[in-house]
Amino acid sequence: MALCLAAGLPMAALAEDPIDPKSYEVSYDEDGRYFTEDDVPTFKIADDGTVDWLTFSGFRRYHAECHVCHGPDGEGSTYAPAIKNSSVDLGYDEFVNVVVNGRNNGNSVMPGFGENRNVMCYLDDIYVYLKARGTDNLARGRPAKKEAKSDVIREDEDACMG
Ligand code: HEC
After folding, report:
1. pLDDT of amino acid 15
2. Ordered structural domains, the chain, with CATH
3. What confidence score (pLDDT) does residue 17 get?
4. Mean pLDDT value across residues 31-37
5. Distance CA 142, CA 138 (A)
6. Is residue 7 pLDDT above 90, yes or no?
7. pTM over 0.70
8. 86 lines ligand 1 (CB under 6 A)
9. Going by CA atoms, what residue is nearest to atom 5 of ligand 1?
10. Ligand 1 atom nearest to 94, measured from its CA
């Protein structure tokens, strides 16, 4: 952990580490999905507030499957952490790992969702939605405007849901 030498305190006690924009900025898009330069799925929000399809879909899936424990809008609850921040802090691979396999720290249990298609088929959607929230690019609540769902996203969804 970085130390603030002047005060001898951990930096985190003074301020959050700034989020590197490269971790969420859109580098390229493919059939209605957006990616960073590291090929990690990310959100896209236009100046007029229109969100990409995955972000909108992620909002709905999150509130169907996760918010009972993690609170509305990824804000956390007394029971489970604010995962809008986890999506930023953990990175994509570890985020996916926890959701697929779950985690049990002895006191509280995050269930594994690896067998649940309503989560697995929408994992990137949930991730990019939370990333938009955790980086303060998306306000709380249901996004008012969204991009159309692309044919490829529709086909992938049908194939995944069976
Ligand atoms: C039954 C309650 C419950 C549900 C439903 C739930 N979680 Fe969790 N989740 C938890 C708890 C409790 C923890 C903290 C576990 C720990 O302390 O290790 C957690 C931890 C996590 C973490 C790790 C947080 C971190 O910063 O380390 C992620 C990521 C996560 N959950 C994602 C999700 C997603 C995505 C969903 C919906 C698909 C979901 N959770 C649904 C209870 C839940």
Report:
1. 59
2. 19-161 (1.10.760.10)
3. 73
4. 98
5. 10
6. no
7. yes
8. yes
9. 66
10. 29
Nearest-angstrom CA–CA distance, 126 and 7: 39
Tens of pLDDT, residues 81-111: 999 999 999 999 999 999 999 999 888 899 9
Which atom from ligand 1 is nearest to the alpha carbon of 108?
12
Mean predicted confidence (pLDDT) in 100-124: 95
- Tokens 């769902």, located at residue: 149
Nearest-angstrom CA–CA distance, 21 and 61: 25
* Cβ atoms of residues 54 and 125 within 8 Å: yes
* CA distance linking residue 24 with residue 114, whole number of Å: 25
- H/E run at residue 109: strand 109-110
CB of residue 128 inside a 6 A radius of ligand 1 = no
Question: Which atom, in ligand 1's list, is nearest to the CA of 89?
Answer: 26
Cα–ligand 1 centroid distance for 80 (angstroms): 6
Distance in angstroms (rounded) separating the CA atoms of residues 42 and 151:
19
pLDDT band at 131 (very low <50, low <70, confident <90, very high): very high
